[in-house]
Amino acid sequence: MASSRKKRVVDETASDCDEVAEDMSDEDTDESENEFMNQLFLKANVNLSELADMIISQNYVGSVIKQIDAEEEDDSSMDDDSGDTVFGLVTIINLADKKDKDCIQKIISMLTSKSKSVSPQDGQKIEELFSNPNETVGLLINERFINIPYQITLPAMQSLRKDIEKANKKQMPFTFTKILLLCKTYRYKIEDKGQVPSLFFSNPEEEFLVEMSDLSVTWSVASERDGVSEKKWDEDDMEATRTVLVLGVDKLDSFIERLKSELAQ
């Protein structure tokens, strides 16, 4: 499947290179996807290679973030981008449709058990969500390297929404009732007694989704961090965490509109 430019350059003020959201293609190897999944799931018992292969197999939904040289961008370079480095990934996986896959079973089990360890009540809600035949949950993946600006998220999410619409017109299984997002988050280890620890998001735009979510659960991954993807937060007073958000599928449009509003300021 040939790759094509999907979105315009987001950072139009940069002089040398810019980030763009592109269609995924066969040239985007599972090594890149594996790296992004590793920084999200860390040491969780999830078959990341199987998950990466799954993402590539549905490359008609979602996009990768690449960096291009603004001075060298022309028609020929757009046709041949096999050497481009992947800096980010945005896609969605139908957990119900892929529930027979080992990696999906492990993700569901991990999310359920971790949530129950923090809040049995919320963990029960997540378990019921996965087991309810009337619910179709999409696992939204929004991953990128830490130095890539969040502005790229808007065209990537707009592209994802269009891809979902196209897939549904072709009777592909991308009709969802709920969206689930696992976020890389951090919090201070020491807070005033009785105070809820402040939560920080590695992808700052994901904080917009907290107020839109039906459910939010955070747990510590301090013992699982790898020292590379978590290096920025490798400080004595910070603790690496993961936060799962559950949202109605209509909140994807709300998220896009919020991003538009923020970027227009």
Automatic annotation (TrEMBL):
Pfam families: BCCIP (PF13862)
Positions with biased composition (Acidic residues): 13-31
Family under the similarity heading: Belongs to the BCP1 family.
GO cellular component: nucleus
Lineage: Eukaryota, Metazoa, Spiralia, Lophotrochozoa, Mollusca
Domain of life per record: Eukaryota
InterPro entries membership: BCP1_family
Residue ranges, annotated region (Disordered): 1-31
Name of the featured protein: Protein BCCIP homolog
